[in-house]
Design goal:
- By secondary structure, the protein is α+β, with helices and mostly antiparallel strands.
- Among the domains are: 2-85 and 108-181, NADH Oxidase (3-Layer(aba) Sandwich); 279-380, no CATH class.
- It contains 16 helices and 10 strands.
- A 4-stranded antiparallel sheet has the order 1-2-7-4, sandwiched between helices. A two-stranded parallel ribbon has the order 3-10.
- The radius of gyration is 25 Å and the shape is elongated.
- It starts with 8 loop residues before the first helix and ends in a 5-residue tail after the last helix.
- The relative contact order is 0.13.
- The model has no long low-confidence stretch (mean pLDDT 93).
């Protein structure tokens, strides 16, 4: 590429970062394509079956750690960060109210794949306008890319023990995107790891999915179970899900670095009223048409109506006893699929157990009151 000799690559890199900031990215970093040090960890993770039913993780093999095999000619990867923490996140408010459906906060607004990919393409176009033979390809969680390893090498942050990228200013409340490019621009230096001896994310995980520092067994992760998995959610893990119906934020919520995260200015990531803080009863009552309408342009739409119903059925089973819940579950049974029915049956069983426990508690209470009124009439 003869043009490169006449281009100041340092100046171009500074321009790329300025263009990225103008496009709404909070940070832009540059990484080389040598990810060899991550191959053994990736292979061990796959060998242990921690990817669950995500066959695509295994089918691409080490291509995930070799950018030039994924996109021939790639010399650098531009890694970008875009914050998504929404205003009025209401984390504790919604988690402690088992009647509300808890949705991972990244999914309450517009589909981040679309938002970031559009901006990355605009960034690529600006680079091409400056250097016409530039070739680029944007990725946003949509291809065999080790985005966290790349972000680490690009100086975006370090990999936390929950396997997410952490940043001193933003915690982990951000999306990552990558622009593979065929230019030998200067790379950024990695930042120092700052987790220290902290193990908060490991100990808070409700399903013990973080089996070791930096290692997540997806088969136990609530995000995997509610989003990626098409199968029955293991019964032993259902009670731990609580009212989480799409994803889980627990390991991020407990991380000390997330105290410093700013609320996003991107209105695309602000919560939709139809999704945020809605009751399980309301969400479970949606028809498929209503589901598709309310999740249009949302990442939630990707899981489909069947898994949406499956997830909410589990949450209804975990809710406090309610005759209305039992009625709702019975009305829905037989209308969606056998998969959903199996989770409805479990939820009905859980509600039945809670009803029996409540009735026993009430009988004991009534007995105590009678004893007091009869034996202690003066002090009753």
């Amino acid at each position: 590429m003869s043009e490169i000799s006449s281009i100041d690559l340092v100046e171009l890199t500074n321009n790329i970062k300025a263009w990225g900031a103008a496009l709404g990215f909070q940070q832009v970093g540059i990484s080389d394509i040598d990810l060899n040090q991550h191959e053994s960890h990736l292979q061990k993770w796959l060998d242990n079956g921690y990817h669950g039913d995500m066959a695509y993780m295994e089918s691409h093999g080490m291509k995930r750690a070799r950018p030039s095999e994924l996109v021939p000619g790639t010399l650098r990867v531009i890694s970008v960060r875009m914050n998504y923490l929404p205003p009025d996140a209401s984390f504790a408010k919604h988690l402690k109210n088992r009647e509300i459906g808890y949705i991972s906060r990244y999914a309450l607004g517009r589909d981040y794949h679309k938002v970031l990919r559009k901006r990355l393409k605009q960034l690529g176009d600006k680079i091409t306008a400056s250097l016409k033979h530039t070739q680029y390809r944007p990725f946003v969680d949509s291809a065999p890319v080790l985005e966290h390893a790349i972000a680490e090498k690009a100086g975006i942050g370090w990999t936390g023990k929950h396997s997410l990228t952490l940043n001193k200013e933003a915690g982990s409340w951000f999306f990552l995107g990558e622009l593979f490019i065929n230019l030998p621009i200067p790379v950024d230096a990695p930042v120092e790891e700052n987790c220290g001896n902290c193990t908060a994310c490991l100990t808070i995980c409700p399903t013990n999915a973080i089996v070791a520092p930096y290692t997540v067994d997806a088969r136990r992760c609530i995000s995997y179970l509610t989003i990626e998995s098409d199968k029955d959610i293991p019964e032993e893990l259902r009670p731990m899900m609580g009212n989480r119906i799409y994803g889980c934020d627990d390991c991020q919520l407990v991380c000390p670095w997330n105290r410093y995260a700013d609320v996003t200015d991107e209105e695309d990531f602000h919560p939709r009223e139809a999704l945020h803080g809605q009751s399980l009863h309301t969400l479970f009552s949606w028809s498929e048409e209503t589901f598709l309408s309310n999740t249009e342009g949302s990442p939630i739409r990707r899981i489909g109506y069947e898994k949406w119903q499956r997830n909410i059925a589990v949450a209804l089973g975990n809710a406090s006893y309610s005759s209305e819940i039992i009625m709702l579950l019975n009305e829905r049974r037989g209308t969606v699929s056998d998969l959903v029915d199996r989770h409805i049956d479990w939820a009905l069983q859980q509600q039945g157990l809670k009803k029996s426990a409540l009735e026993l508690q009430n009988r004991q209470q009534h007995r105590l009151i009678r004893v007091i009124e009869k034996g202690l009439p003066r002090d009753a």
